[in-house]
Amino acid sequence: MSFSEIGLLLLAVCAGAAGQLFLKLGALKLGKVTFTNVGDHLWRIATIPELLLGLLAYGMGAIAYILLLTRVNLSVAGPAAASVYIFTVLLGYFVFQESLSPLRLMGIGLVVCGVILIAAKA
């Protein structure tokens, strides 16, 4: 991949991770959805800034990913975009103090290895 393609990939991945971060922050404000409060929660989704930012970030990531797909093979772009998992696990750890067990660290390592192997030219 060229530098511009890597830039598009990083933009898509970072926007996706930011989207997940903001959606989680908004979901914490929203509270638990149940069968009895689903209507109220659907309305509140449109009024919680973090949720709107999360949706906007996802939209920007989707646009960057579409632009990337015009330049590289899906068989490379798709797995490389999986690197968003690395960022979301790290965001969970640093922002929400979620656990980062050795098993999760090994999973991150496997994702990194997989992205490198798929993105590498054979």
Summarize the structure.
By secondary structure, the protein is mostly helical. It has helices spanning 3-30, 38-45, 49-69, 74-81, 84-96, 102-119. It has one domain (3-119).
Task: Please provide a written account of the structure.
- With 122 residues, this protein is mostly helical.
- The protein has one domain.
- Helix content is 79%, strand content 0%.
- It is built from 6 helices and no strands.
- It has helices spanning 3-30, 38-45, 49-69, 74-81, 84-96, 102-119.
- Helix 1 runs antiparallel to helix 3 and helix 1 (3-30) packs across helix 5 (84-96).
- It is globular and about 50 Å long.
Number of strands: 0
Helix percentage = over 70%
Radius of gyration, taken over Cα atoms and rounded to an integer in Å: 17 Å
Question: Counting H and I runs of at least 4 residues, what is the number of helices?
Answer: 6
Please state roughly what percent of the residues sit in beta strands, choosing from under 5%, 5-15%, 15-25%, 25-35%, 35-45% or over 45%: under 5%
Q: What would the average pLDDT be, to the nearest integer?
A: 90
Order of helices and strands: HHHHHH
- What sort of overall outline do the alpha carbons produce when their principal axes are compared? globular
Q: Assign the structural class, choosing from mainly alpha, mainly beta, alpha/beta, alpha+beta, or little secondary structure.
A: mainly alpha
Distance between the termini: 12 Å
Structural features:
122 residues, mainly alpha
Topology of this structure?
Layout: H1 3-30, H2 38-45, H3 49-69, H4 74-81, H5 84-96, H6 102-119
Helix pairs in contact: 1-3, 1-5, 4-6
